[in-house]
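ERR on first pass: missing label on line 2. Operator R.T. fixed the label and resubmitted. Corrected input:
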Amino acid sequence: MNNRLRILRAERNWSQADLAQKLEVSRQSVNAIETGKYDPSLPLAFKLARLFSTTIEQIFTDEDSDSEAQPS
Amino acid sequence: MFNKNLSKFQRRSLQLFSSSILLTAGLTMLTHELFRHHSNPPTGPLAWILAILPALPFLGTIYLCLRYLAREKDEFIRAQVLLALLQGAFLTLGATVVYTFLQNYLDIPAPPAMAYVDLFLITAMVALRIHLRNSQ
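pass 2 clean. output:
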C-alpha cells in the first residue's frame, strides 16, 4: 500500500511527533505508516482522512491500482 | 530500556510488569533456598504453599500482559508487542523441544526452575526492542 502521508504532513509543516499527537498514537506508528511498513486499521485511516480533510483514497492507494493507472 | 516516548499507560504497565517479574525471581530464589539449602526444609501444607508461591506473581504477569494488550490504544505498538510475544513463544518452544530430546537420550541435567520463562521473557523483550528500533 502506497500513501501520501509524508506529503500531506509536509504541506502542513507538521513533524511526525505533531501528527502522532493529533492521532493519539506513537511517533513510531506514524513513521511505520509513512514508510509503508504498517497498514493502519480502517478507524485509524478514517481518523487520518478527517484530520487532513480528505478521503482515505486520497491518502492511500493500492499498489495494484497504481500499476493499472500507469500505462506500460 | 523503552522509557523514551512511552505514554503514561505504557510506562505504568511496564512498571507493573517489571515489578511482577522481579517478585517472581525473588520468590523463586527464596523457595529454592528454603527447599534445597535449608537444614530443615518445609514440609506438609507449608511446603505446598511455598512451592506454588513463585508461580503466583508470574500468573499475575500473564494477566498484566493480557490486560495491556486489551487496553493498548496504539494499534501499531500493540501489533509489535503481539509479534514479539509470538516470536518469544516460538523460540522458547523450539528450545524446549531441542532440550527435551537431548534430555531423553543424553545424560544432561534438567534446566533450572523458570529457565524457560526467563528464555521467553528475554527473547520477547529483545524481539520487541528490535521491532521498535526498526520503526524509529
